Amino acid sequence: MISAAELSAIPLFAELTAEQLDFLARAVEDIQLLPGEYAVHEGDDRALFVVVDGRVDLTKEVNGVERVIGPRGPGELYGEVPVMLSMAMPASCVAVEPSRMLKVDVGTFFTLAGMAPQVVATVGALAKGRMEGLKEIAAEKPTPDVVVVGPLVDPRVHELRTFLHRNRVTFETVNTAAAAHGLEVELADGTRLVDPTVREVALAAGLPVVPAHDDYDVVIIGGGPTGLTAAVNGAAEGLRTLVVERFAPGGQAGTSTRIENYTGFPFGVSGDELASKALRQARRLGAEIVVTRGVEAIDPLTRTLTLDGGAQIGARVALLTSGVEWRHVELDAIDRFVGNGVYYGAARSDSGLAHGKDVVIIGAGNSAGQAALFFSRHARSVTLVVRGESLAASMSQYLIDQIGSNRHVSVETRSEVVALHGQDSLEQIETVDRRTGTVAVRRVEVLFVMIGADAVTSWLPDEVARDEHGYVLTGPDARRSGAWTSAREPFALETTAPGIFAAGDVRSGSVKRVAAGVGEGGMAIAFVHQFLALTT
């Protein structure tokens, strides 16, 4: 996290007051780049970047070749024109040497502009100098769809902010005192909701929560990468397709801060971006996606699904893509801190929780590593607490290497969090070093738990067989289980109940990777077509 003193040394911010510098220090991303690393890519959403140290090049792909179009050094900016003209970034920005840059997002920029008009004046003048023929163009801050009013320490506020972010609903938050205010939501048309449920907010924001039809060719239970891929393929091939999602499209993968080993994205892709593109694609092709809805029961013979609230829909085929849910850690009193200092999983929308804080992450998998690197741009420090001897057994090497070179991230192996303390919110944690038995008490206000995940399949009927860990048996495993009663062989992704398929993380024996889940989502629709051919 950059300090106010360091910010004041940058020409653009030299005239800011102490209060304004403090606001900016808490709001910007502090990005450390090694040679060859990118701060932003061509086509990304607009933002203003400031070089603090080092040197970077702006590059643009021309006829398939990446060409350098200009350098930037300490104190210089990139993004003036996109910020002022409300356009995507026209070029990429790559470090030539070890460099440090600040990223000022659009919301922060316009908030700062209201506090210090000279900043927007300076940026506008620079934009005019860089773009021939630039006239007086002012970029207005868009009106949010929703304003969330409530104390940030309220778990309901955190849940609602996460829900809105992941469902691509624009919103602002007004933080209030916990003792004086509950949760309220204000809509753009002036409507005010008091202590609303997430579903009530979804309805008010225009998100689909009720299926449009009573019957579908295929109902997909779960809107993660596997389910969205199945929806894309099913809708594209003319099937009446419904996705039933309990919270937000993208699933657990949608919270991933950066997926770097997904084919087709040479610089990595956030779970948010991947989910957003898949969602737009599925809807464009005609798939229907409802949110804040869960399936409570399914008839294995008729494939009639009962949604929460008792509504029923029919499906010629049902596809289970419900994925997995974060495993909970066993600590006394942890429940009273969940959403108020303790968080299961981590998403880009949680960056505000980490600003200027000492963040602890329990976990040693790729998700924990990706989160540690992301939060290092916002937090004062990030500590990974790992039960094992090292990260090597559970984390990809590229993440281990990046963590090792990041001075803001530390790793404590053979260690565990054993106690939590706090009044209204998390204030302290106790950790134990299993090598020495030493117990340390440290001030920590933000703790992310990422210790693995489990399939939640207890709601399924007995006719859908599962392994000893609750994962759904399919194909040859379904046949060998003894629960398959049909004369024909089950399709590769078919469960022990004919016409009910499973794909992705919820399936026994699947490879728990995003790319594998996406592949299974496409495969499942091919088997759905084969099954439907048998029944027509």
Describe it for me?
Helices cover 26% and strands 26% of the residues. It has 536 residues and is an alpha/beta fold. The strands form seven sheets. Strands 13, 14, 15, 16, 17, 18 and 29 form a seven-stranded mixed beta sheet that branches. A five-stranded parallel beta sheet has the order 20-27-21-22-23, covered by helices on one side. A four-stranded antiparallel beta sheet has the order 1-8-3-6. Strand 25 (428-433) and strand 26 form a beta hairpin. Helix 8 runs parallel beside helix 9 (271-284) and helix 8 (225-236) crosses helix 14 (514-535). Residues 133-140 have low confidence and may be disordered.
In short:
The chain has 536 residues and is an alpha/beta fold.
